[in-house]
Amino acid sequence: MSPLRMIFLALAIWGAIHPMYYFISWFNANGYDLMAMVDAWHVNAAASGLVWDLTIAAVTLTVWIIAEVAVRRNWLGLIAIPATFCIGVSCGLPLYLFLRSAPVR
Predict the structure, then answer these.
(1) Where would I find the H helices in the chain?
(2) Has this prediction a pTM greater than 0.85?
(3) Domain positions in the chain
(4) Which residues contact 8 (CB under 8 A, 6 or more apart)?
(5) CA angle 22, 23, 24 (to 5 degrees)
(6) What one-character-per-residue DSSP string does 7-25 give?
(7) How many angstroms separate the CA atoms of 65 and 59, rounded?
(8) CB burial class (10 A; 0-12, 13-18, 19+) of residue 68?
(9) Tens digit of each residue's pLDDT (9 = 90 or more) over 31-63
(10) Segment 24-29 mean pLDDT
(11) How many CA atoms lie within 13 A of 25 on its CB side?
(12) CA–CA dist 56, 4 (Å, integer)
């Protein structure tokens, strides 16, 4: 595995673990109410801006993944879409780059 692929994989793992630590901490402190978490994301204008920034990035990444999978037929790349929306762009983007950079067979 190339050093670049190892970096993408490490970033995908970090992008999965680090945000989930904060999500789980929030759920443990406030209960497992997803709508309460969404309300917390919009507590002020700065937080709302960040939410929209990440949402637009996630949608853009999804469009890119779908367009490339349609051309490259790398169906495994599609797993980056649920990773993006269930965990975040911090996991989905490096995961897709890791999957995309696999050697061609």
Answers:
(1) 3-30, 34-41, 45-72, 80-86, 89-100
(2) yes
(3) 3-100
(4) 94, 95, 97, 98, 101
(5) 90
(6) HHHHHHHHHHHHHHHHHHH
(7) 10
(8) middle
(9) 999 999 999 999 999 999 999 999 999 999 999
(10) 95
(11) 6
(12) 26
